[in-house]
Amino acid sequence: MIVVVDYGMGNLRSVQKGFEKVGSNAVISRDPEEIRKADRLVLPGVGAFPECMRNLLRLDLVEPILEFMQSGRPFLGICLGLQLLFDESEEFGIHEGFKAVPGTVKSFDRNMGLKIPHMGWNQVCFRKETPIFKGIQDGSFFYFVHSYYVVPKDESDIAAETDYGIRFTCAISRGNVFAVQFHPEKSQENGLRILTNFSNL
């Protein structure tokens, strides 16, 4: 069973509907035991990093999620669900994340002359072979909405990159842990392919 973590923020229903479109059963839950017992776990997210971490801690969900990631079962982070995995974020001050992936979360430079947030379709360039990208052509377009981006400490964690004023990491792969900055559930055929690939891991 695929469990989509509910911590009071995020596009939960659209993620669930994305999995339903590819024939996978996904349930939305904030039950720590259900999270621990999942076959596959998805951490979506929309909103501010510090508020999301507060909600996850208040609901006692951080430990079950970390335990799941350490179990070797497939994990997928989406958008803020990618950023939360890192050591810390500079969004509204410095705030600690899950510390599951070494690195930081930084803001786009608002002096680049580009609109912030980075919103819309952009090209994703693969850095390494990653199971969730199976059958997807390098350079395919995905849908983004974000003002912050991750900077992994270990380059071997970088699965894909995108250009927006700078070249930034838009996907990571670390053992059984996968996470993307873009929204697969809003990225049409290629996004659904990621959900299919994840369901088949």
Automatic annotation (TrEMBL):
Q: Which SUPFAM superfamilies match?
A: Class I glutamine amidotransferase-like (SSF52317)
UniProt-listed GO biological process terms: L-histidine biosynthetic process
InterPro entries documented for this protein = Class_I_gatase-like (IPR029062), GATASE (IPR017926), Imidazole-glycPsynth_HisH (IPR010139)
- Name the EC number(s): 4.3.2.10, 3.5.1.2
GO cellular component assignments: cytoplasm
Classify the main location: cytoplasm
- Coiled-coil ranges per UniProt: none
Instruction: Provide the alphabetized UniProt keywords.
Output: Amino-acid biosynthesis, Cytoplasm, Glutamine amidotransferase, Histidine biosynthesis, Hydrolase, Lyase
Q: What subcellular locations does the record give?
A: Cytoplasm
Q: Which residues form the active site?
A: C79, H183, E185
Which Pfam families has this protein been placed in?
GATase
Domain called Glutamine amidotransferase: residue spans? 3-198
Annotated GO molecular function terms are:
glutaminase activity; imidazoleglycerol-phosphate synthase activity; lyase activity
The UniProt subunit note reads as follows: Heterodimer of HisH and HisF.
Stored HAMAP family: HisH (MF_00278)
Question: What role is this protein assigned?
Answer: IGPS catalyzes the conversion of PRFAR and glutamine to IGP, AICAR and glutamate. The HisH subunit catalyzes the hydrolysis of glutamine to glutamate and ammonia as part of the synthesis of IGP and AICAR. The resulting ammonia molecule is channeled to the active site of HisF.
What name appears for this protein in its UniProt entry?
A: Imidazole glycerol phosphate synthase subunit HisH
Query: What is the phylogenetic placement of the source species in the record?
Result: Bacteria, Pseudomonadati, Thermodesulfobacteriota, Desulfomonilia, Desulfomonilales
